[in-house]
Amino acid sequence: MSSTTTTGTTTATGARTEEAAALIGGARERIDALDDRIIGLVQERMAVSAVIQEARITSGGRRVNLSRETAVLGHYRDALGKPGTALAMTLLELCRGRV
Fold this sequence. Notes:
This protein is an all-alpha fold. Helices cover 82% and strands 0% of the residues. The chain is built from 4 helices and no strands. Helix 1 packs across helix 2 and helix 3 (66-80) runs antiparallel to helix 4 (82-95). Keywords: Isomerase. One of its GO terms (molecular function) is chorismate mutase activity.
C-alpha cells in the first residue's frame, strides 16, 4: 500500500493506523448496509400505516389513534431510553402520511 493511499484511508476514517482504518472501513460498510435495511423497514412501516389509516377513515374513524401512538412511544422509550422517544416521534410523523 502506498503512503498516499494509507494517509488517505486513515484521514478518511480518522484512524491513526492502517489496521484501525481497515476495521473502521469495514464497520462503516456494515452500518451503511444496516441503514439501507432500516430505511426499507421504515418505508414498509409507512405503507402498512397507510393501510391502517385508510381502513380507520373509511369506517368513520380518525386518521390518527392517539392511544396507539402513546403505546408506540412507550415501547421505544422502554427499549432505547429517552432517545427512543424522539426516534418514535419521527417514525410516527413519517407514518401519519400527508394531511
